[in-house]
Write a structure and sequence with these properties.
It is built from 9 helices and 3 strands; from the N terminus they run H-E-H-H-E-E-H-H-H-H-H-H. By secondary structure, the protein is mainly alpha-helical. The chain has a 3-stranded antiparallel sheet with strand order 1-3-2. Helix 1 packs parallel to helix 7, helix 5 (107-117) runs antiparallel to helix 6 and helix 6 (126-141) packs antiparallel against helix 7. The radius of gyration is 19 Å and the shape is globular. It holds the Pfam family FCD.
Amino acid sequence: MDDETDAAGRRIAHALRERIITGDIAMGDKLGERDVAEQLGVSRVPVREALQLLESEGFVSSSHRRAAIVHTFTLDDAVELFDMRMQLEPFAASLAARRAAAGADTTHLVAALEVAHVVHDDDAPASTRNSDLHEEIFALAAHRLLLRMSGLLTGRTRWLFRLTPERDTQGRWDEHDEIVEAILGGHADLAFALAASHVERGRVESLPRLADRLPAQPVPRRRRGSTPA
């Protein structure tokens, strides 16, 4: 695969990922290579690369040779996502605080927090602003393996945030303020504790709501030719 095809595949993956996260492409929808290629005016090769990337991120699953199915986000997915966030985000916050104490550039982190507090009708939605702030914490942590692992979580975390928009409250952003303040002050243990509390509070508030909105487990697809019981 050449660089041009790789770049095109990533652009297409980004466009499809955003449409899945916003619900413009619904869970369970079929994404055929030919249909997507025709809609976007591109060849099938970068579309195939895009679908493979989205499958590796858990947004789609292979159905047959020429199509993929958009993953149906389940309550089990949400539980696993909170489990992983609890392991990664406090660790990232503590590393970021240590690097800030050592003189690392915190400009982008501060900017992300400021953007989050200045909201206009045409601004990015809360799920994006929230995700951008967490990404800057991971970036400041500058742990290469952690960055790779967080990359697999970012999209799904935004998807989760979109499913619970009522949690975009001042209280949540106050928690972000506290986490960033601890990081900027170089207080690694405090940053760890605040990030852990932030994730756990999100779990406690989100899971009961999601239990009413999501299937507990994936609904198995019927094999071709089978009939309902």
